[in-house]
Design goal:
With 312 residues, this protein is α+β, with helices and mostly antiparallel strands. The chain has two domains: 111 residues, no CATH class; 187 residues, PAS domain (Beta-Lactamase, 2-Layer Sandwich). 30% of the residues lie in helices and 26% in strands. A hairpin with a 3-residue loop joins strand 3 and strand 4. Helix 3 runs antiparallel to helix 4. It is elongated and about 75 Å long.
């Protein structure tokens, strides 16, 4: 048989295309459209194909996949004894990835199907999600080489990452956090000296400390959830952040408005700890470049909410 096609239903059952069982679950006995594609994109089915006993192709819409369907597909994949895998998945368009490792493919399917993290709203912090894929087409963006390294190394961390941030002039505003089971508590492993808002003492003594225990507890609790989400999903985040940051070393601990691009990347390590790197680029005009580079506020008297009200 050249090609064997099966479908996993949302509750983890296996059915054949155009079978009575499939059509019953589709709710349409005589579909005049591509019923398989419809079921995959809209109903949470997973399409599972074995091609010439040499490659497994899995097609899914991760946002709609239920856990029983995911587990059934992963189990079949591990038992098939095939060494080449192609995953096609849909978000706003179709994407395709190839792997020669069953274990890596299983892990990737889990990553894809992890629920999307929705950051908690906070009056001091506003996040504008960006398209991570666009970084690969932006030759001028300092963050692009980091995204490329993450992709070509299959997200495996090595010390050359630090050298790369130095070459890209990103090291001062880089932080690396470790997330390790079973607690999955984000813990600082590196804090660049450009994070002046956190205070000199914490930059020296904060390594090994939980992110949520930052001196500014509001910010610590808020940003810890991003680190935890990136580590658990295995997916990068590319955002524009506007935040009222609290400057710990200054009298009265004033809050200043800052705005920056942020790229968070999850990295595998030789242990079960996941590293999450966070690199930031301050946003501003040439006139206030020096102030922006040290995360100084363009308007320290305004809150984030007032800033957006003024600019909308």
């Amino acid at each position: 048989m050249e090609r064997l096609t099966m479908l996993v239903t949302p509750d983890g059952e296996w059915v054949f295309p155009n079978s009575e069982e499939f059509l019953a679950r589709l709710g349409d006995a005589t579909p005049d459209y591509d019923a398989i594609s419809f079921a995959v994109k809209n109903l949470g089915f997973i399409k599972f194909q074995i091609i010439r006993q040499s490659i497994i192709e899995i097609e899914l819409h991760p946002r709609n996949v239920e856990l029983p369907a995911l587990l059934a597909a992963q189990q079949q994949l591990l038992q098939a004894g095939i060494k080449l895998f192609r995953v096609r998945y849909f978000d706003t368009e179709w994407h395709s990835e190839i792997s020669s490792s069953a274990e890596r493919t299983v892990a990737r399917l889990s990553e894809l199907c992890t629920p999307v993290f929705t950051p908690a709203t906070h009056e001091r912090f506003i996040v504008e999600p960006q398209d991570f894929g666009q970084l690969f087409h932006d030759d001028e963006n300092q963050l692009r080489p980091l995204a490329q390294k993450w992709r070509v190394t299959f997200a495996h961390f090595d010390p050359s990452f630090i050298s790369l941030t130095v070459r890209q002039q990103l090291l001062p505003l880089t932080a690396i956090v470790g997330v390790k089971p079973p607690t999955n508590e984000p813990v600082f492993r590196f804090i660049g000296d450009g994070h002046r808002w956190v205070g000199t003492q914490y930059r020296v003594n904060g390594l090994g400390e939980k992110v949520e225990n930052l001196p500014d507890r509001d910010y610590g609790g808020w940003v810890a959830e991003f680190y935890r989400s990136v580590a658990s999903s295995g997916q990068p985040r590319y955002d524009v952040v506007t935040a009222a940051m609290q400057y710990e070393d200054e009298a009265g601990k004033p809050r200043r408005l800052v705005r920056y691009e942020r790229l968070m990347l999850p990295w595998k390590t030789p242990s079960d700890e996941i590293f999450v790197s966070s690199c930031a680029i301050p946003l501003g005009t040439a006139a206030d470049a020096e102030a922006e580079a040290s995360f100084q506020s363009r308007d320290p008297e305004r809150s984030v909410v007032k800033y957006f009200a003024r600019s909308s």
